[in-house]
Design goal:
heterodimer; A: 153 residues; Rossmann fold; five-stranded parallel β-sheet; 5 helices; globular; B: 307 residues
Amino acid sequence: MKTLNKLVSIARKRSPWLFHLNAGGCNGCDIELVVCLSPRYDVEQVGILLVGSPRHADILCVTGPVTHGTRAALEAIYNQMPGPKAVVAIGSCPASCDVFAGSPAIEGPLDRIVPVDVYIPGCPPRPHDIINGVARAVTILAGKGKDTLNKDE
Amino acid sequence: MSIGRSLLALFVIPGLLYAVPMAWLMLWIERKMRARMQGRIGPFFYQPFFDFVKLMAKRPIPRSSFDTLWMIGLPASAIGALLASLALLPVFSTSSGFIGDLVLLIGLIEVPPLCAVLAGFASRSIFGQVGATREAILSITYNLPFLTAIVALATSARSIRLTDIALAPSGAVRALVVVTLLLCLPVKLRVNPFSLSNAEQEIYAGPTTEFDGPRLALWELAHGLEWVVLTGIVACIALPFRIGSGIADIAFFTLLSLILVIMVTMIGAATARLKISQAINFYLKWSIGMAILAFIIAVLGGVALIP
């Protein structure tokens, strides 16, 4: 069982699949996230994939301060992700609402709605920082659910 | 076929023990080649294995027991059908099949697309349903040339035993049939010019959109096994001879399968996705013409032989 746990932990570190949600951001961080998949950074070499369905994902990457319109989608997506899962807040918006703070249309910051594991500051953050943040999230993910095959953390 | 030999074929070579690592290897080659052709480095060779382990260890969303039943049952039956069809492949010169195993093989390789269609519709996701519809339309289209080609080869070999068909000396018919089957490979494996049913960026993952954790892992494995089986069929009937010794035969079979994987992947990486009407036009215009030509030659060849 110990060997199995170790294998699962390694597998979680080596194949994080991301789901990307724009919760009302300006698209700056989204472009920086997609750049990570390009030939210059090529995160697929460490097993990172951007998937289209939240049911396939391990890590939820959120950009933007959460607006009224996106809150329901955010909650639905978070609840539809199978565990263990991690949430990464990309950019200043999900961390603090940035320039949108105080707007009546904003329900953020993100950690009021879902638990956040890693904050990546910057407006927008550089691709290096995003990769670094995802790497930290992956470490958290591998530590989550130590009892491997089932049971919640 | 004796029971011992059948079990060996099902569980060792070319069945479970050979096919599962081979499936992961082929999935890796596909991803790596695509990455290299796009100027990226691409994943390490262990990537599909770790993806599988990670997915198996996830906690899926709780669902009703009936949902759980079909969500596990459909990919599991796809895997079962693929392993059974692998066991039928005439990899060795001595592996004597039984009369009619060609019909069984054709039936078995149609099970995974059928399961994918059912999974897509049963998931009630709009993306799953669109993917399932495309898969159903395409499978009707590509099966016309595919089955005509297989029937042509069987006609020219005057047998419905796979070993006889694979080893029958038939030049022109075999060449046409192999080209037709090669044209059918990308659409059966859902790679690029014909990746309509699982079109990413368009309908997410098609029929498997709603599948999570271990259920998705089973589909990934089924997809890898589809690579092994379909390239294996072409590798088995491409050349009408076997080396004779077991290890050399399996090595030759593996080499030929991997060459086919590289070919299909290169086509996939170099092309863009077609519309469904274009894909259907392609198969109804080009592949079926070649398959019918092979069939006519096979029938005429037979007529000439009968006094």
